[in-house]
Records
---
Amino acid sequence: MPSATDSKKSIIGLRIGQSYSSIAIINKDGRADCIANEDGERQIPTLVAFAGEEELAGTQAKALLLSNSKNTISQFRNFIGKSFAECNSSVIKGTAQLVDKDGIPAYSVEFMNQESIFTVQEITTKYITSLRESAENFLGQPVTGVVLAIPTYFTDSQRLALKDATEKAGLRVLQLINEPTAAILTYESGIKSEEYNNNLHNDRTALILDLGSDSLDVTVMSIRSGMFTILATTHDPDLGGAAFDDLLVNHFVNEFKRKTQIDILQNKRALVKLRNAVEITKKTLSSSSTSPCSVESLADGIDFHGSINRTRFEIMSNKLFTRILDVISNTLKENNLDTQLIDEVILVGGASRIPKLQSKLRDTFNNTITVIRQDFEPDEVVAYGCAFQGDLIGDLDDQMISDSIDSSVTLVPHLSKPIGILNAENNFVVIIPGNTPLPARRIFQSSNMFDDQKKFYVPIWEGDIIVPKPSSQTDNNLENDSTLQERPNLSPVKLLAELVLTDLPEKKINELKVDITIEIDINQKCIILAKELTSNKSVEIEIQITQ
Amino acid sequence: MSQSHLVLGVPPSSWDESLSFKIHCGISEGVIRNIEPVGRYFLAHARRKLNNHSFSEDEHIQAEANAKKLEVIHDEDSEDETPELLSRDPKDWKEQDHYAILGLSKYRWEATDEQIKQAHRKKVLKHHPDKKASSGNTNDDGFFKCIQKAYEILSDPVKRRQFDSVDEAIDDTPPSAKAKGDFFEIYSPVFEREARFSNKTPVPMLGDINTIKSEVEAFYDFCRDDKRYIERKNKAERARYKKEDNIRLRKIIDQALSLDPRIQKFKQEEKAAKEAKKKEKEDAIKNAKEAAQRAAEEERLKKEQAEAEAKLKQQEEKKEKANKKKMIRNERKSIKTHLKTHNYFYPPNEPPPLDVIEMQLSELDFLFEKLSLEDLQNVRKQLDSTQDRHDANQILVKEASRLVSSGVLPMDSVKYFKSDSIDVTENREQKTTDIEEHKVIEETPKERPWEVEEISLLIKAANKFPGGSLNRISEYVADHSGLPSRTNEELIKKSKEVQKGTIALDENDVRKLQHQKKHADTRITEHPSMREATIDYDAIAASTVNGSSTSANNTNTWAPAQQAQLERALQAYPPSWKGEGDRWDKIAEAVENKTKKECKLRVKYLAEQVKAKKAAQST
Ligand SMILES: Nc1ncnc2c1ncn2[C@@H]1O[C@H](COP(=O)(O)OP(=O)(O)OP(=O)(O)O)[C@@H](O)[C@H]1O
Ligand SMILES: [Mg+2]
């Protein structure tokens, strides 16, 4: 909770997307919120443009996409920190020329009446400067620090380059964090610390599906007592909102041709116009069942007015949905994961708002366990997470931050199998789930089975996941899915140790309180303590990994 | 979660009583992975890791550090913490007096946010479990939890209002109706106290004796339909409470209303004002009605009179017009009869060709258009007075040339009357098209009639190139009109006419020109092809020679160059041509990219256009 002394501190969370970026802050009430730029937009187009003597960025630069496209730079984010040879310039759509400047990708534009070359790095700095200014206009004070989100697939040199560009834009970079991690942090920040203290560790496995403008990122993340570990991540570089735009562009190109006999497929300018228009059409289709598409003077001075309904759009998008689902199932398969092991699917990225995607996901995660969530605006949730992290570490000094995020701290063994206790009814109760980072310590309270129970038996087991095989016709049988599929079972597989307490005070059923503490250190040495709270009677053992 | 409750039994019967534990094997080897370095739980992990502390060591250090901070602060002026208060069970938070827990009993709903914050801080520091933990006293954080709950409720504006709305520690019984004393002194605090329930803020105040009526009314209105927070454990109880509360509040309002001295005053004022207004309104309505009736009557009379006059005048005019029309018709008929009598100027025993008759009659109609009744009478009288077909012919030709020379008629509009044209009879057996075609050939080398557009272009060019060479002007006109270029003589002549202002364009032409100019000014650049696309005002001009904006192999399209070639070819191979082979083959040869058939069609088309143009002008 921010205290009164925090007023001097103003830290922002920043997400730079390939097409849109967002700036988030933490409000007085402790909630994250995005701030709008001077043009009132919370999703700020990732564009820079040069017009005469002026440099423009964001919404204003996007406005020039049509009239001054050769001096407008878009889709540059993914080139940062790459060499020219590594840049796939076919990605660029009719904007400023990407050129090779001593092996570094750069753009050639006309600025101040002469040809100028700006490296991707410089462009990024210009863009981030404009974001900083927007934030400062809003806050009425300088930004004191920023936490930046980066795609998981960014290489180290890309991370460094983005950090460098941000610092050149006049911002103190507190930390870079992975986009899906930022998203999860947002979902997690609603959880109060007492809940962890009360043993509600909220352990779960989430699949974060980020469908952005140009890419699809699938990340499987385990969440253990508020700590996050990425188990798997896949990146598909050309499956995003733009792919849906392509379908719509195609559709309307054909419609226009049918109506007017004019083919605009080779007409770059007309295509840019249409592409701008269909993005709006597509967004509208996420909330209405039909959506118009109008372009004034599309070609030869002829206006275009078309419309499309959602069903039609869904039918033509079917291939894309299938591709998205394939990426998900491959990611799971390659990592020996099953859909039933995913507790939550978290939707991130603007294009994840497409309603059909959610119903398709529901069909894929055809079980009673997985919850599909979009509690936060999918294109803001990443920036929120950055802002939360900024709020948390804003007071720490740089040394402390860099020590903390050093790999010697972050790179640790994780428990490979769950550890738990077989209770009086022979059920395996997990105390520490698999994938928990070490060291770990958890305390569990247990009680007696009957009145005046003088002895207490604590068998410690290591378990494993047994996924129930779905019965043969499950796939098409939607009505009965809840009865056909069950929660995956965790079964005790290996007995690690047994502990026994004797001569306990006489208590009524359920009134004896025995705390069981399991602590596993970094060397995977396991200490188990069982202690009765009124008599302080206890047993403690130590298990070495080699045993 | 299901696993939060763990029930354990006794060891199996095979268990060796002497043992308190048995170790079987170690845990499976872990997998090295990267923790995402975010969130406070990661920070705690990093702190332990960097300091090389175990969980319990770290906890101990943290607790000590917190306890030290806590000791610095002690509180004065605080409410007593009774043992009863300190032993409250946090589970019963719904019954808890949050203000008492934070030591704010005497402020209650009046406590400011800042007071609540401060009070919470103090209590936290005093009762923090870490402080107790460091002194070895564990598991006693009940009161601390009470504090957290109290703060959670009171720091949240919504929850706080819910709590305030049912705060039983407040005396909310209405004052006695018979209470003596100043109305405002008694009721102001009552309403202020009620305001804390209000969902809407700011809440209006009761005011004093001088408060204006609208504000007093607004105040009572607000109290009446104020939506208020009511928070009770269950729905039934909430409903019951709400009902009770409504009754109580209504009682307060009713009582206040009946006692409020301002209300009495307002009622009397209102009554008097109403009466006065009513009378005023009635009078106004009556007056307005009468005035409206009067005005309507006057209006009606005026209109009737005007209508009658207009009708009369119209009838007269109509009659006169009809008369004149009739006379004109008669005169025209007589002239035509004369023409017939004179065998269309052909020798008496030679029947004139049908197309000549037709052309003469259409030219005559054309001429008629320009002649007034007097002119017609004049011509008819002259014709009446002669028997000779040549004289008759002269009369008409003279009349026509009079019109031509005064600029009313184009130069060549009446050549069929000319007797010399009648004498051309050598190709009498030729088809009609040939005669017309012949006409086209004949007029081209003389002077093609000036199109309206050309004249306007000429004016423009003259302005554009003052003193410029004729060639330049000619080129400009040709380029922009898409028509064949003019000879220098033609240009000079026309320019002079233009300068002298003797070019008289008829009304239609002027309109066309204006229209064309408007379009040209707003949309058209100096681009001939674009002009083509936009000017469709004059079918004749455009079709005489078509520009080349559309593709060249379109048979309907004749480029100016092609047109010129055609014209030259027609001259070179007139119908009278006696050379070898078909004359149309020769003509087609001379025109680029055009077949014989296309050339024929073109000539036919042009002839039709000339005819159509005349017809159009004469209607
Ligand atoms: N309501 C909506 N319905 C459908 N698509 C939407 C909606 N809102 C935004 N989008 C699409 O989401 C995409 C932008 O999402 P986002 O901002 O997450 O992408 P990005 O981060 O810029 O791209 P990337 O993740 O590829 O770098 C665009 O393609 C946009 O059209
Ligand atoms: Mg993105």
Note: Chain B has 26 helices and three strands.
---
Amino acid sequence: MNWSLFFGELVSGLTLGSIYALIALGYTMVYGILKLLNFAHGDVYMVGAFVGFFVLKWLGGPLAPAVTGWLAVAIMFTVAMLACGALGVGIERFAYRPLRNAPRIAPLISALGVSIFLQNSALLLWGPQFRDYDTFDLVGVKSYHIGTNFFISNVQILTISVSIGLTILLALVISRTRTGKAMRATSFDRDAAEMMGISIDRVISFTFFLGSALAAAGGIMFGLVFGQIFSLMGFTAGLKGFTAAVVGGIGSIPGAVLGGFLIGLTEAFATGYLPGGSVYANLYVFALLIVMFLIRPTGLLGSPVIQKV
Amino acid sequence: MSSLGGGQPGEGGLPAAAPEPVDAPDRVKVGVDEWVAEAEGRRAARSGLTGALVRVWERLPAPARLAILIGPFAIFPFITNEGNLYRYGLITIIYALLALGLNVVVGFAGLLDLGYVAFFGVGAYLYGIMASGHSGHHLQAEIAIPIVVISTALFGLLLGLTSWRLLGDYLAIVTLFFLQAFVIFVNNANGGLNDFSYPFVGKVDLTGGSNGLDQIDPLNFFGYHITTTKGYYFFTLISITLLMTMLYFVNGSRTGRAWRALREDPLAAEVMSVPVNRLKLLAFMFGAATAGFSGTIYGAVQSGAFPGDYDVGLLITIYAIVILGGLGSIGGVVIGALVVNGAPELLRSSSNARFLFYGVLLLALFIAMRPWYKPVVVLLGTIAFGFAVHGIASAVWSRGTAGHIEGGGQLGRALEHWVLLPRNTSSIAGWAYFALIVAALVLTLLRGWWRALALIPTLYLASFVWENKLVEQVSGATRLILLGGLLVVIMNVRPSGIFGTSRVEIA
Amino acid sequence: MAALLELRDVSKAFGGLQVIDHLNLHVDEGEIVSVIGPNGAGKTTVFNLITGIYHVDSGEIVFEGDKVSGLPPHAITNRGIARTFQTLRLFLNMTVLENVMAAEYGQTKATALEAMLQLPRARREEKRIRKVAEEKLAFFGQRLAGYRHDQPAYSLSYANRRRLEIARAMATNARLLLLDEPAAGMNPHETHEITELIGKLRDDADYSILVIEHDMHVVEGISDRVIALDHGVKIAEGLFDEVATHPLVIEAYLGVRAEAEAV
Ligand SMILES: Nc1ncnc2c1ncn2[C@@H]1O[C@H](COP(=O)(O)OP(=O)(O)OP(=O)(O)O)[C@@H](O)[C@H]1O
Ligand SMILES: [Mg+2]
């Protein structure tokens, strides 16, 4: 067996997976509370990557940075997460909130509209070309090896650990804070929560803020890992993020993370091992989704949906 | 908080819905009754000219309605000879045909199928594989079309199977992924280095990969080739007329009722003797077959099939058509297609697009604002505001007025004295675009005269952004931005589509 | 005479919650049987089991001598069982007439293709079921008559929606109607009307009826037999007076302390 290929795919799968996990978290939270598939989420992720890019440029670019590389990265994360959090709140406020009691299909189509709007706004303003993050110059990518076959770079370590760290932080927010409790109550029964005096609007806004901020973090990680971003990167990533959320069990926070890693690993190993994998990896992810739906429609960690009659 | 939650029940609405039984706290969701009452109000409020028109329209017999919708298309070729116009007309009808099939899936059966345009692609590619210089086969259309229709229907059946287990959003994502899978497949299935190696036959160039499948044959029925745009135009027009008629009959039949029942409440439908799963499949198959058929025509018209044509952009276009026309409204798709595809296609040059932009803006202003003098005030205000800004700018910021409108005609020349045209616009226009979005959103929060007042700088900003940024990419990004925005706005203002009757849903 | 509908030892649990526990129940031809019980007793669940929305865990359901448990809901309906919903599930955006006609799907055969081409069978069937639907609606007198046929269902009042649900169930050509709280949310006048209507359904239209009802006046007025459920167990069965005064029933409704006082 070719161990270096195996470990290579393993590490790249985990890296990809941690990006998908961050996207999936946003889907899962929003879905848990609003039962809405937020198509625009993938595009928020793309906007996050671009905000990071412009922050970097504003700091003088990777070659002549005003601050050291890692601090620049930290600033990129902070600004992008705040900006995208606000974007998410805005999207909810204007595109979804007026539709809370409308027919089921209306917010979905509205979401589709927002997605197209964001995607093409990016095309209009920033063009279709790739933008470089220049990760090598920015932080000086180092590769560590353990044994002869296992390599991992500092950027990959950063990605995986930031993703896990943010997830733990999120879990704490949800389980410990008052707002977190309100979120859980709302996702359990929105109407009852409203009658108990919880401000649903505030909870939903907060949820969108968190989810979108996490997506922005994912977007920057993508930029750091692959060195490049582009205006159309949100669509496929969003699709996979949602797949991750579904595979893990929609509405479940650990499920989203598990799903994210599973999708990342599937993609990586499909690329390395399956016929046509280098171009058809996404087809294999799709196949995984279908299989998942057939054997366990509620996802790995999801609880069964009760439909009372 | 929006007005939906606590809105006033419109006049003529429900008698404030009967009192809820105390023993069922979970019976009706908070806010739903108001929504129902409001919908009633909206329906009743359609008075005046529009209301009268709608009522006349609804009372017309079906053949008359069909004639009114299709008639103009039929005489169109006799009043113009311009080749390009033909082509736009043709594409519009093809899109309408495509939308008709989607309408069955989404509008009738209520299944949110976001993979729909993949079947359009399957139609084009499959026909291309059976009849093109690329593949080397040249099947006659009378054989190829039934094969395409049957195979796309089978594909539809396969995708539809997922609808047995999945509802709503899950179905949406699986079908969207299916579309994505299709695009990836056709982009790569060229028998190249990375492609699959199939059992028995090895590597095959099926789709031509990202270069597309070219040299598709014109449709050839029993040796008679359709070679002119005019020929395709009439062929498609006849097809759509037949299909609309058949759909009209289906809609009124047990199948149509069962589809609508399934859209309203699948569980109740099932208990009321409707085999829901079978009807879902039927809807998917019907939609897919229609898409496959229109894809074949499209492939033959383009004499090629290219992966980029069957992507999310087309999906949005078709959804916009269906939604504008009204979900579930058969005739609506024709109007939807005219608006969504016809208008921008006809006005492709930037000067025509400019007329369209300001025209639509004016129209929207006068339709949306009551009473009549309000939009007049806003309009005059905006004009004055523009000249004032321009005047000040030319004194203090000469760069801001240095630009020109290329080939703008009379309107363009007039605008040069009104709208700011900085020489190096890129980043200013970018920020202005951003500001415009924020301004438009803020507008939705204001009421009455405040809104009218805020509208003045917003409109000016809009034309600034239009002249300096949007106009650059009229047929690309701008078109899709407008479509995306349109979808959001329609969903917020009139979720049933412009020409559809409003629907009420109680979750 | 053999029972029209029979539940034999039927059980159903959701997770750990035993909602129906070895229930035996039958409805004879031409009978009106009421099911009563406190909230959460499992009454609606019985209906869901009979109509195939839920699957029984054990036991079987027999209709006209044939086992129907295990069949999909639409097939059960076609055998001759139809229901109304406690939580009203009309096709709100379809007209009143269409609501009723939609329920006649199982009694028609014309395919979509025949409808497209307007072949004779499609047209014939359409005419027939329209007539049937109008007949069913006529059963409710002025309430659902005339101009109401073409109104969307959502424009109906609450009481009329309940009536339309019954009309829709009738249109499936059922022999047994399952009515889930038909009088819920109605005022006393309307409640009285519904009581009479249920009697008429049996006497004039030959339906057998299984009805869930909380309003004891209605139950008293219509029932040939009453079955009391609590926690999925049948605690009493018999004539209204016997069941209403049964100690277990009183306990179920009022709690144990009340029983201690009553004794
Ligand atoms: N699909 C389901 N999943 C889980 N629990 C269920 C489901 N359906 C019903 N239950 C539970 O089964 C019990 C009985 O419910 P059911 O609806 O049959 O009561 P009911 O007797 O009709 O009460 P009511 O008078 O309030 O209508 C309740 O505790 C309910 O929560
Ligand atoms: Mg009940």
Note: The first strand of chain B starts at residue 213 and ends at 214.
